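haha ok so turns out i had the wrong file open the whole time. this is the CORRECT one, sorry everyone. sequence first:
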Amino acid sequence: MKKLARRWRRTRGDDDEEDDDKLVLPTFDDIDSRPIDTQEQEEYVRSLEAAHAHQSRQWKSVFAVLLICYGAFLLYSSFQQFMSPWELRYHAYFMEDLKSWMVISAEWIAIIACCLSIVGLLDKKNDHRRWFWYSCVPGSALTIFWLYYLLRLPKFRWDAIWLPFGPLCGAGICLYVDHLLEESSEEVKKLRNYMYAYKAR
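then structure:
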C-alpha cells in the first residue's frame, strides 16, 4: 500500500484549482524512471484491491472463529448449569440471588448476541454493520443484568467480569475491525478514482 502511495504525485496546477483536480497518476516509475502505462496503473490498483479483499476475509474469519469459540463455551456453560446447577464457580457466586433458569436464559441471550456478530462478519452486503448494532442490544441488556447482580455480591468477583462485558465487547470489537477495513477500502477506491480522473485528462 505504501509502495503504491509513493507513486501518486500532486501536479503543479493553478492556485484556483481544486485539490482533487491536482491528484493524478505518475507517468514515470520512481525507482527506475520507467514510464508507467495505463495497464500497469490498472494492475497496481487491482493488486491493492485483491490484497485488501484477502486481508478483509482473513481478519473477519479470525474474529468469527473467536466468537464461535466463545459461543461454544457459553453453550457448554449453560448445559452444565442445566445438568449440574451451580457446579461452575462463576455460576455459584449467584446461587443466592438468581434462579437456575435465569442464568441459562442469560447465557442463551449471550449466544444469540454472538451469532448476530458472526452474521455481521460473514455478511457481504453493504448494510452488514446493522448486525453488529443488533448484537449490541442484547449485549447491553446482559451488561446491566450481570453488573446488577455482581454488585450485589458481598465481594466483587473480578473473575466473573466477562459475564457482563463479553458479548458487548465482542460486538464492539467487530464494529471497530469493520471500521478499519472500511477505511482501508475507501483509500483503495480513492486511488481508482484518481486513475479514472487521469485517464479522462
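The longest helix spans residues 38-83.
again sry for the mixup
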